[in-house]
Structures are given as structure tokens and as C-alpha cells.
């Protein structure tokens, strides 16, 4: 006869609390736990299986089976009932287990014939670390409160595994799954290799107080914290100073939906009534939910998983009364940030000297945080699905920003191979540093200006370190992207003055604010509106001419900052010459305004335009005469010429930037600049790779701008380049039919024949 179990879960949790407080060895603690579970649930058998790194479930403790089978009995992931639970992360409750198709008999355990079977996964952050099982000879169906008690016990065991206690019981050469090496393949967002240790951007809060003394008090704490959480979400949705539109609003609406979901709240309340603290209840329900959602095939529902995780973490912080922690505190010297997603400003909160890399579960090459990470020179890999839940703070990790790979808890030989890669790159960087003192000239004596791209104060020290001739592109919009509100005129002026001071007379080209398209400012409603083709839409000069207050404020800040010096201003995404005339009128008006109030003005003001829109290719001579200089934005120009979205991974390798048609376009621009005596610079990814930089020089470009890290490799190529030979070579190959060998292969062969380092 089965006894009344109404008080069973509470009695079991009380006994577990006492066990956890006793000074026991890990094996003895596990043995006592399974004995107490069996007694509490009136079960003939209770067993714990722990998942090893080789995907084998090993029997770690049992009552009712052969005790000699402990650490010997094994099941593969997916094998038998236990293996099925581990593979699916779902509980199994069977009244006649032997009829289940997955049933498997292990002779070494000496188990007798049984009918009833209840098994639950041991979960932590949605990861299966093992399986906890009870069995009965009699045919019965376990009740919901018994399942809840077993799941709660499994959560306690998961924390024991995570703490490392149970790992001490592993046999030599066999490691638990928690320490298993894992590799992820995604997309390389920024070149470089980083070795270090995991710093979870929003680390899971470790719940140490698991068992409650007063369920009523814990329910009150939960209700209060849920109320505060709901209010904070409602407040964010209702605020008028921030434009939560599109995806921003959808995320918050999802948070609000979860926060008011009665099913979720009911599960939290049940866990508390069964003896857990409010925070332990959140941890348990969150882990259960994540395990279930991970096995859903619907991509939309799986995406909601991260919303749920974020919300649960917010609730945990409410319960524990934790505000934002000081980020630099206890940060390792070789930190690699691992995040689902993060804002650009959040990355800047981390001390740059301790960062070795960034890993994102989501993200895109053009996302704000990636743009900032590039500016900081940090290797970045993204689209690494599952990396956050597999990572623990302090885990060794390698981020490969060249191949787009991440290696978590790597094997020693892999770590050694990557360490050698890093040393090799460091040796090359040392060679590049030595090149700084050499003139930037080709082998046959042609001078070339190697400029750097920048956009933030953190970029400025690299001007001297890279040996750049100046800043060929200062992206002023980055200051807007990392701010929570529009930067005040004084803040803009200070940044621009600091840039010019750091340049010490070297040329600096400021591009006016280039927002819109993929550069959405959440606090600016105008830039967040839905557009079918944002890259072709309301952005850059189009936006600022329609919102002239933005441009006037920025121009005034630039004019003040450049007092007594030369000021070079460049307009992005110009489509027709009338836009230049409109912008010049705004600039002239600001000059007159400052003159009236006797402000110190620049000694000279040069206005330039970016060639990114193909329509300018049929206005080149008129354009060159309308401006003081031009700069080719090769990224956007290539995108528009080839009708290929540069953020679309399916098209990433489809069209070559060194194809004959695109090189002919670039040559037209260089020739028009020469013909009209108008300086031409190119600032895009083409400038930063030695092989494409070599092609640009052969086409007639004598000024190119790139990331600071690219200047060394490009200069190493430049000093070995016989430019006269290359120019003749390109003239010959571009003049004939385009259907020859790929131009990239021809350029590579040209360099190989002359020992030019690419």
C-alpha cells in the first residue's frame, strides 16, 4: 500500500538541507541522498547516473541495485530509458517500464524485475548533466508532487556537479560532461585570435540558498519582485524619451508576456510550496523551461528562449537585490566576453587592456557592438548558437576571428597550436612596428599615404602605434551609437578637439553622421522606422538634410573644435550634386554665425563627398569640380554595384571585390580624380587587405584608409611592390575581355613571382 505523500516533498527537502550541511565526502553524500529519496518515495530502487564528457552515462550512486556496479555500469546517450531521458532532457513516468521501446537491461546492476519507473534529467541552465531514477516492483503511476520532489533533488545534485565536488569521483582519464571540450562554428566578424577565460556578459546568478524556512514569506518575496519587474518593463514600454520601436519593442512585449504568464508564475509558486526559496524556484523553473524549449523545432519558439532566460535573470536580480555590478571587478587579465547579444556601450564598459576577444550567440557583421569591437581591435566571432549555456565563468576559451570558430575548454594540443598562432602573429606585429620608421613608398619610389579609420576616443592611441599618416575616415556616428541619448554639442566638440589634438597636424577627415539603414539609434524615432530596403532608404546625408538641426549642431561643434587648424568634412552617401550644395549652404551659415560671435574658426575648410552610390559614376567630372576631395566607400559601392547585400551570408562569397567589372569602376574614379586634380582616397575593407590594397595602387590610388591593424601588413606589401610593373600588368588585363582567369588569381601570381608578401 502506498502511503500518503502530501508532506513527502517537504520532508525530503528538509532531509536534503540537513545532508548538504553535513561534512561528508562526495560519494557518501550521494549514497545518503539516493537512500533518503528511496525511503521518502517508498521505492525499491533509486539511482543516479552522471553524464561524462564521452557522452556515456555512468552509475554514480544507487540503492536497490548491485553496489559493486557503481562507476562500472554505463549507458550511452540515447540508450535505454536513462539514455533517452538524458538525450531528450524530458522526464519519463512509466507504470510498466518494460513495455517501453527504449527499455534496456543491464545485467551487471543485478536489477530485479520492476514495473514502475520515474526518471528526471539533472539539469543546469538547460544542460543535461545526468539522470535521477526511482523504480518500484508494483505497477503504479507517480504523482505530480513526487515528480516535483525528484526534479528539485536533481537540481541540488546539478549544483553539486557544477561545484566540482562530484568530479573528484571520476576515474583517471574520464571527465564529466561539464568539463567536456566543445567547439562552435559560426561567422568571423573581426580578424584575430584570442586565448583567455570566459567572462559571461550577464553571468548566471549562482543560487546558494536553496531551501526555505517559511513558504509564505518566500511567496511574498516572489510576488513583490514580480510586481517590481512588471513595473520596470511597463515603464520602459511607456517611456517617451526612448523610441522602442520594431525589434526593441517586440523584445519588451515578449518580456511583459512572460512576466504576466500565469502558467510560469504558478510553476514558481509550486516550487516554493515544495520547499524551495524564491530564487531557487526561479532557477529550477528556468532550467526546466530551457531544456524543453531547446528541443522544440519551431525556430520562433526557440528564439523566445533567450527572452525567457533574460527575464528570469532579471527576476533573480530583483529577488537578490542586486544592482549593476562593477564590471572591472574580478575581471581576468585575459577576458573573453561571451554574450547572447550586447550593446555597443556595454562593451566599452570593460577595460580594454583586459579584453582578448568577444563571442556572440547572435549578432551581425554590421551590428553596433561589432563595429565598436573592430574599432577596439578585438577578435570577434558570432552566430555561435548554444555557446552561452555551455560556458561557465572562468572556462578556458579560444576565439578564432579568422575562421569564425570558438573552442571552449580546448584540449591541450589544440590550445598549444593556437598559442603558437598567437606568437606568430605577435612576431609579425613586431616586424610591422619596425616598418613604422620606414617611408611609405613602393619599391620604385612612389609615395603612398596609409591612413587609418577611427570613430571613438579608444581609437586615438593607435594613430601613433600603427604609424598612420593621418585619419582618412573618422566615423562620427559611433559616438551617437554608444550613447543612450543624443550627444550634446559640447560632448561632440570635445571629442573632435581631442581627435585633432592627438593627430598633431596630421590630416583628419570627419564624416558627418551616417545613421539610418542598419545604424539605428534607439533614442531617435526617425531612424527606427520600418523600411523595406533600409540600405537604400532614409539614411546618411538624406536623413541629415531632412533633419538639418542634427547637421547644424555637428558642423558647429566641428568648426569650434578645429579653430586655428584645417578642417576636412566629408558627406556620406551622396547621390546627386544638389545634396552637396544644400550641405555647403548649412556649413556656410554656421561659419557666418560663429564669425558674428568672434569664434576662433579653422584656417581652411575642405568639403568632400563619399562615392558610394553608383549614380555618381555618371557625374564624376562635375563631382570632382564641386568638392575639394572625394573618398570611395568601397563596401557600400560594391554592394550597390553588384546588387548584393553585404550582410547576407549566402552572398558573402558569391561576388569578388577584385572582379574585373568592379576594378574598372574603381579605375574610372581614380582617373577622374587625376584628370580634375582632385585628391581621391579609398576607405573600405578593400584597403585593409594586402592583395586588394595592391590592386588599388595599381589602379592609381595613392591614399587609402584602413583599420589600424591592417597598416602593418599593407606597408610590408607596399615596400616590396614594383608599382610600375603592376600598373602595366593591370592596364593590360583590364583592357581585354573580362572572361579570363579570375583577377584575384592573377594578382596572387604576380605577387608570388616577385616575392611580395600578401
Automatic annotation (TrEMBL):
Record key words, sorted: Cytoplasm, Kinase, Magnesium, Metal-binding, Phosphotransferase system, Sugar transport, Transferase, Transport
GO biological-process terms attached to the record: phosphoenolpyruvate-dependent sugar phosphotransferase system
InterPro entries associated with the record: GAF, GAF-like_dom_sf, PEP-util_enz_mobile_dom, PEP-utilizing_PTS_enzyme, PEP_util_C, PEP_util_CS, Phosphohistidine_dom_sf, PTS_EI-like
Reported cofactor(s): Mg(2+)
GO CC annotation: cytoplasm
Catalytic reaction list: L-histidyl-[protein] + phosphoenolpyruvate = N(pros)-phospho-L-histidyl-[protein] + pyruvate
Subcellular localization: Cytoplasm
GAF domain residues: 25-171
Signal peptide start-end: none
Annotated family: Belongs to the PEP-utilizing enzyme family.
Stated name of the protein: phosphoenolpyruvate--protein phosphotransferase
Species assigned in the record: Aminobacter aminovorans (Chelatobacter heintzii)
Native organism taxonomy: Bacteria, Pseudomonadati, Pseudomonadota, Alphaproteobacteria, Hyphomicrobiales
Amino acid at each position: 500500500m502506498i502511503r500518503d505523500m502530501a508532506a513527502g516533498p517537504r520532508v525530503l527537502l528538509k532531509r536534503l538541507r540537513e545532508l548538504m550541511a553535513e561534512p561528508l565526502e562526495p560519494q557518501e553524500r550521494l549514497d545518503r541522498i539516493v537512500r533518503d529519496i528511496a525511503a521518502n518515495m517508498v521505492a525499491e530502487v533509486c539511482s543516479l547516473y552522471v553524464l561524462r564528457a564521452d557522452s556515456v552515462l555512468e552509475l554514480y550512486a544507487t540503492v536497490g541495485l548491485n553496489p559493486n556496479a557503481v562507476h562500472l555500469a554505463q549507458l550511452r546517450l540515447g540508450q535505454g530509458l536513462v539514455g533517452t531521458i538524458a538525450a531528450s532532457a524530458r522526464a519519463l513516468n512509466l507504470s510498466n517500464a518494460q513495455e517501453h521501446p527504449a527499455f534496456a537491461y543491464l545485467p551487471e546492476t543485478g536489477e530485479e524485475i520492476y514495473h514502475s519507473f520515474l526518471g528526471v534529467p539533472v539539469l543546469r541552465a538547460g544542460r543535461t548533466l545526468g539522470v535521477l531514477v526511482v523504480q518500484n516492483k508494483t505497477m503504479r503511476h507517480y504523482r505530480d508532487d513526487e515528480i516535483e520532489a525528484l526534479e528539485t533533488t536533481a537540481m541540488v545534485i546539478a549544483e553539486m556537479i557544477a561545484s566540482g565536488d562530484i568530479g573528484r569521483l571520476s576515474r583517471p582519464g574520464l571527465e564529466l560532461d561539464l568539463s567536456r571540450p566543445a567547439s562552435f562554428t559560426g561567422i568571423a566578424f573581426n580578424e584575430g585570435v584570442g586565448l583567455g577565460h570566459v567572462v559571461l556578459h550577464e553571468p548566471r546568478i549562482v543560487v546558494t540558498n536553496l531551501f526555505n524556512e517559511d513558504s509564505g514569506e518566500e511567496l511574498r518575496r516572489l510576488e513583490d519582485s514580480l510586481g517590481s519587474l512588471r513595473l520596470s518593463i511597463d515603464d520602459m514600454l511607456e517611456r517617451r524619451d526612448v523610441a522602442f520601436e520594431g525589434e526593441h519593442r517586440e523584445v519588451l512585449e515578449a518580456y511583459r508576456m512572460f512576466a504576466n504568464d500565469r502558467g510560469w508564475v504558478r510553476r514558481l509558486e509550486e516550487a516554493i510550496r515544495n520547499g524551495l526559496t524564491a530564487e531557487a524556484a526561479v532557477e529550477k523553473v528556468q532550467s526546466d523551461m530551457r531544456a524543453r524549449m531547446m528541443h522544440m523545432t519551431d525556430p520562433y519558439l526557440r528564439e523566445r528562449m533567450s527572452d525567457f532566460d533574460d527575464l528570469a535573470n532579471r527576476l533573480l536580480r530583483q529577488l537578490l537585490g542586486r544592482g549593476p555590478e562593477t564590471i572591472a571587478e574580478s575581471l581576468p587579465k585575459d577576458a573573453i566576453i561571451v554574450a547572447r547579444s550586447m550593446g555597443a556601450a556595454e562593451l566599452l564598459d570593460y577595460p580594454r587592456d583586459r579584453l582578448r576577444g568577444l563571442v556572440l550567440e547572435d549578432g551581425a557583421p554590421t551590428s553596433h557592438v561589432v563595429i565598436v569591437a573592430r574599432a577596439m581591435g578585438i577578435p570577434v566571432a558570432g552566430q555561435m548558437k548554444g555557446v552561452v549555456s555551455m560556458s561557465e565563468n572562468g572556462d578556458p576559451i579560444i576565439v578564432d576571428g579568422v575562421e569564425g570558430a570558438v573552442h571552449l575548454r580546448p584540449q591541450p594540443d589544440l590550445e598549444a597550436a593556437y598559442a603558437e598562432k598567437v606568437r606568430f602573429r605577435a612576431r609579425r606585429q613586431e616586424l610591422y612596428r619596425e616598418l613604422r620608421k620606414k617611408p611609405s613608398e613602393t619599391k620604385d619610389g612612389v609615395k603612398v599615404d596609409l591612413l587609418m579609420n577611427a570613430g571613438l576616443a579608444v581609437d586615438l592611441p593607435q594613430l601613433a602605434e600603427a604609424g598612420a599618416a593621418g585619419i582618412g575616415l573618422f566615423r562620427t556616428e559611433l559616438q551617437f551609437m554608444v550613447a543612450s541619448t543624443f550627444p550634446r554639442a559640447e560632448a561632440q566638440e570635445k571629442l573632435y578637439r581631442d581627435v585633432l589634438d592627438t593627430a598633431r597636424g596630421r590630416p583628419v577627415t570627419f564624416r558627418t553622421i551616417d545613421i539610418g539603414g542598419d545604424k539605428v539609434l534607439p533614442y531617435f524615432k526617425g531612424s527606427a522606422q520600418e523600411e523595406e530596403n533600409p540600405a537604400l532608404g532614409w539614411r546618411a546625408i538624406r536623413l541629415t538634410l531632412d533633419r538639418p538641426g542634427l547637421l547644424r549642431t555637428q558642423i558647429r561643434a566641428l568648426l569650434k573644435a578645429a579653430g586655428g587648424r584645417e578642417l576636412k568634412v566629408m558627406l556620406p552617401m551622396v547621390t546627386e550634386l544638389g545634396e552637396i550644395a544644400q550641405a555647403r549652404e548649412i556649413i556656410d551659415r554656421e561659419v557666418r554665425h560663429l564669425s558674428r560671435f568672434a569664434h576662433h574658426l579653422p584656417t581652411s575648410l575642405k568639403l568632400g563627398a563619399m562615392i558610394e552610390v553608383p549614380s555618381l559614376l555618371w557625374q564624376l567630372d562635375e563631382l570632382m569640380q564641386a568638392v575639394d576631395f572625394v573618398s570611395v566607400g568601397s563596401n557600400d559601392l560594391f554592394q550597390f554595384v553588384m546588387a548584393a547585400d553585404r550582410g547576407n551570408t549566402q552572398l558573402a562569397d558569391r561576388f569578388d571585390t577584385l572582379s574585373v567589372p568592379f576594378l574598372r569602376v574603381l579605375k574610372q574614379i581614380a582617373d577622374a580624380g587625376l584628370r580634375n586634380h582632385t585628391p581621391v582616397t579609398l576607405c573600405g575593407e578593400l584597403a585593409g587587405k594586402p592583395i586588394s590594397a595592391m590592386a588599388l595602387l595599381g589602379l592609381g590610388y595613392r591614399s587609402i584608409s584602413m583599420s589600424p591593424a591592417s597598416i602593418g601588413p599593407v606597408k610590408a606589401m607596399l615596400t616590396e611592390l614594383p608599382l610600375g610593373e603592376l600598373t602595366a600588368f593591370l592596364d593590360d588585363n583590364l583592357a581585354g575581355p573580362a572572361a579570363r582567369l579570375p583577377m584575384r588569381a592573377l594578382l596572387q601570381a604576380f605577387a608570388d613571382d616577385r616575392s611580395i608578401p600578401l
